[in-house]
Amino acid sequence: MAKIAYILLCHKDPDAIIQQAERLTAAGDFMSIHFDARAKPEHFRRIQSALADNPNVTFARKRIKCGWGEWSLVQATLHAVEAAADQFPRATHFYMLSGDCMAIKTAEYAHDFLDANDVDYVESFDFLESDWIKTGMKKERLIYRHFFNERTQKWRFYTSYRLQQKFGLTREIPADIQIQIGSQWWCLRRRTIERIIEFTRERKDVMRFFRTTWIPDETFFQTLVRHLIPETQISTRTLTFLMFSDYGMPVTFYDDHYDLLLSQDFLFARKISPEAKDLKARLGRLYAEKDVHFQISNEGLSLFQFLTGRGRIGRRFAMRFWETESSLGRERELLIVVCKKWHVAKRLLEQIRKVTNVPAIEYLFNEESTEIPDLGGIQSTLEKRTRHRRALMRMLFEYYETDRLIVCMDPSNLDLMNDFFSDRSKTRMLEIECHFSEDYLIGHARRVGLAGERTSQETLMRLLPTIRNDLVYESDRIRDSEFSNFYRILETAPAEDNAEKIAAFLSISPDQAMEVATAPHLFAD
To answer: What pLDDT, on the 0 to 100 scale, is given for residue 427?
Structure first.
């Protein structure tokens, strides 16, 4: 009978990880966990302590810091796979999971399903010929070397890429390897895993190649399985049910999707909402049950396409599937930096990036040129960003795989601030009060169209008091709104006072806050 070693890559929510491990191993299966080295050490200690007496759980022997699109995700997977292969000799299958996955069938059903077909389950389509990649780089992922993280080191990533393009610094794909692409959620047989591990030790040239490809978790295992295993022993599908919106973001499942999920021809589903407590409890109990009959209708994808095509008709599902939900998420924190001097806020964000790992985006609702990832078009104009602001913010949280996000806003964006503070997420605001010199006010008047290059000095002098009062009025409106978790730093205040507010706003240590508050030339014009 099949015995499954689950390979779990995770980085947060230790209690959910513990519960998932206990549920999946209670039926006699195994689990190997890689917990991201970027995560809080106390969370990892809690997981280790809770699962220390479970003989069916092991941990990757080396924890590394993982980043989206990087080789680190593949390396972390290999560490967990090697630990599972050594620790669990009775495991017949190795199944890749994330912390957002849950079983939608019983263990009994899963074991019978795997026993019935002696194949590997992995999406693997020809990288260059298939249309699996819809937008963005394709061949460039492979023929150029990618040393930097596109999300956290965007400038370095694209500068390195453009320099290689300019000087023609391409490289050859290993001659005997046909690159494949597909979902990273695979289920592989033991002999396939053993051949992959052996291959990684023998073919250093292939390993060097993949280490500097972009998004290798979509190509590495997919390519090696196709290279090492006969085609007749590969089922080109995933056993994890997942869907994507028109913007390329994963659809999230909620409490009222229980019956829908059970009817799909898959063993697991991703992503389950952290707030779907009832769904998680029911699916958790399901895995250990016996003699459950599943009526497979497999209508999930077609139902999703039908309902999104009809907009708000069929609201019960469309709101869940298309819009996910109106909230950013109860567990998420949105941190808003408000400042009329945009360059000051940008300098502050740059310093915050150096001190913390919190993703920070500049004036995305005010500057169309703000660097923002491609989210399928929703980010293309300021009008779209503002109209779909909650969907945009949810997608950014998903893109950066974070529960904390910093954004900058102009003080005039009071409607946006009110909307985000009314959300169920945790929202905080830091206002930066600056001194406005005459030169700055004149420049502001020209930027907003109140004055031109030929406007006389006399006219400008008459305008300045009105402009200054308008800026003060914007700040007063924010304070009159009495937002909770509101902090304010002043250009004229001592660094110690500002650091205290920054520490509370960011939930960081006083030393870190002082490092942010004392950034060189922070308030300079």
So the answer is: 95
Query: Rounded to 5 degrees, what are φ and ψ at 457?
Result: -60, -35
Residue 377: left (phi > 0), alpha (psi -120 to 50), or beta? Answer: left
pLDDT digits (tens, 9 = 90+) for 47-78: 999 999 999 999 999 999 999 899 999 999 99
What length does the chain have? 525
Q: Do residues 129 and 222 lie in contact, with contact meaning Cβ atoms separated by under 8 Å?
A: no
Contact 392, 375 (CB under 8 A): yes
Task: Please tell me whether the peptide bond between 280 and the residue prior to it is cis, using omega within 30 degrees of 0.
Answer: no
Residue of 103, 139, 151 whose CA lies nearest to 213: 139
Please write the tens of the pLDDT for every residue from 278-303: 889 999 999 989 999 998 877 676 65
Query: What does the buried/exposed string (b/e) look like for 342-372 if buried means 16 or more CB atoms within 10 Å of the residue's CB?
Result: eebbbbbbebbeebbebbbbbbbbbeeebeb
Handedness of CA 486, 489, 493, 499 (dihedral sign): positive
How buried is residue 240: exposed, middle or buried, by Cβ count under 10 Å (0-12/13-18/19+)? buried
Token pair for residue 341? 């001097």
Structural contact between residues 241 and 104, judged by C-beta atoms closer than 8 angstroms:
yes
Question: How is residue 146 written in tokens?
Answer: 């990618």
DSSP 290-302: SS--------HHH
pTM: 0.67
CA angle, corner 238, sides to 294 and 69, nearest 5? 140
Give me the pLDDT at residue 247, please: 55
Tokens found for residue 471: 């800026």
Q: Are strands 102-103 and 268-269 parallel, antiparallel or unpaired?
A: antiparallel
- Where do we find the tokens 């980010």? 379
**DSSP annotation of 218:** G
pLDDT at 387: 87
197 and 82 Cβ atoms separated by less than 8 Å: yes
